[in-house]
From TrEMBL:
Keyword Ribosomal protein: no
Annotated family: Belongs to the class-I pyridine nucleotide-disulfide oxidoreductase family.
Matching PANTHER family: GLUTATHIONE REDUCTASE (NADPH) (PTHR43014:SF5), MERCURIC REDUCTASE (PTHR43014)
Domain Pyridine nucleotide-disulphide oxidoreductase dimerisation: 342-450
The record's free-text note on cofactor binding: Binds 1 FAD per subunit.
Pfam families the record matches: Pyr_redox_2, Pyr_redox_dim
Binding site for FAD: 53, 140-142, 304
Identification of the protein by name: Glutathione amide reductase
Organism: Crateriforma conspicua
UniProt: NAD(+) binding residues: 175-182, 198, 263
Amino acid sequence: MSSPTHFDLIVIGTGPAGGTVARKVAETGKRVAIVDERTFGGTCALRGCNPKKVYVNAGQLVDRVRRSNDQLVADASTRIDWVKLHAFKETFTRPVAEGSEASFQDSGITTLHGTAKFIGVSTLSIAGEFYEAERIVIATGSRPRTLNFPNSACLISSDDFLDLSQLPRHIAFFGGGYISMEFAHVAARAGSRVTIIEKNSGVLSGFDPDLVKTLTAHSHQQGIQFLLNQNIEGIDVLGDESRCIKLRDGQTVSADCVVHGAGRVPNIDRMQLDVAGIQHDQDGVSVDAHLRSQSNERVYAVGDCARTAQPRLTPVANEDARIVAKNLFADRPVRSPDYGMVPRACFTTPAIASVGLSEEQARQTSADLEVRTGDMSDWSSVRKTGKTVAGYKVLIDRDSDAILGAHLLGPGAEETINLFAMAMKHNLTAADVKSTLFVFPSFSHDIRQMI
C-alpha cells in the first residue's frame, strides 16, 4: 500500500451536519477533507426536506383553493401542473448540486469522491486512494431499508419520486410513515389514485393516535386508500408501467408505481466499520454523550448514522454537528448536545405535529395528569382557511403546571408546535404561556385556548 495522504480531519458525508463540521474545523486552520459517494449537498437539500416542501406547498395551495370554493373564491377548478412543479423544484436543488463542492473548496477543504471504507483505525480507502486522519467524522445519513420480497427492486425511493417528470395515474406507497403520508397527500391533490399499504393497524406511529385517526379519515376523504395490517409478499411486473402487488392476505393491488416508504436505516453498511473497531448496530454507530465512538476514540458520528435516542431529523443533525466541531480537537471532549424538546411534523395537508411526551408516556410520568384536548375545526382561525380538520392535545402536570407534551393537527400546526417546544425547553409553565400575549388573529394565539 502506498503512503496515505494525511489530514487533520476527514468528514464522510456532505449534508448539513458533515458540511458544518468540515467548515468550522477548517476555519481553525486544520487540514480538512470531505468525501461523498453521491452529489455533494446531502439528502436534506437535494433529495429530502427542501425539495419535498416545494411539492407540499403545491398540494397545500391547491387544497386551500378547493376547500374555499363558494366561501373565499368563486372558481376552485385549479390543478397542479406536475411538469412545471418538477421544474420549479429543480431551481432549489440544482444550485446546491452545482455549488456545494465549489463552496467547500473555497473554504480550503479538499473534496473527494467515492465510497469511504475503513482499512485501519484511522485510515480510509476512497476510490483506490488511501487517506488517514487524526479525526474522522461519519455523517453519512440514512438510506431506505432493504426489502426482501420478489421484485422488491422495482420499488422506487423517495429520491426517485421527487425526480418523476410525469405523475403516474395510480401510486402505491409501501409503509405509512412520514414519506408515504406526505407524498400521498401531494399525489392525491395532483390527480393520482393513491394507496398506502401499512403492516400495522395505523399510520404515523410516532404521532398522537387520536389525531392520526382524524387525519386518516380526512385523508380517505381526499381519495387516499389505506390497506392496514397488510404486507407485500411480492410484486409482478406486467410492463414498464404496470405493477401487480401481492398482499399477505391474498389480495392484489394494481399500480403504475410503487414507492418505498417502509423505513430508513443508517447508511453505514458499506464502510467496513468493523475493520476500524467501530461498534455499531442497525441503529447506527455507538457513541458516547459527546458523540465520540465508544470503541474508537478517533471517530465521531453525527445525525442519522449516530445511535442516539433522538429522532432522525435535520435539526438534531445540526445540533450534533455544532457539538462535534467543538469536541474534535479539544484536550478532551466535554460538550454534549442540548436537544431540548425536539418537535416533529409530518407535512400532510393539514399537517400533524408533536413535541414532548405522548399521552401514554405522560400517564406513566405524572401522578396527576391533565389532558386538554379538543376539536379546532370550528375555531375561527381554522374556518378562515376554508373547511378542514383540526385538533389538539396538550398534556399538563397539575402539580407543577409543567407542559409535558403537545400534539397538534390542522393548518399551521408545523409552525405552532415550535412555540410549545420553546416553552418546554425553557421550563415555562402552562400559566406562563397562557399569560403571554400573541398576535391576534393568528394560529399562535390559539395556544391560549388550548391550555
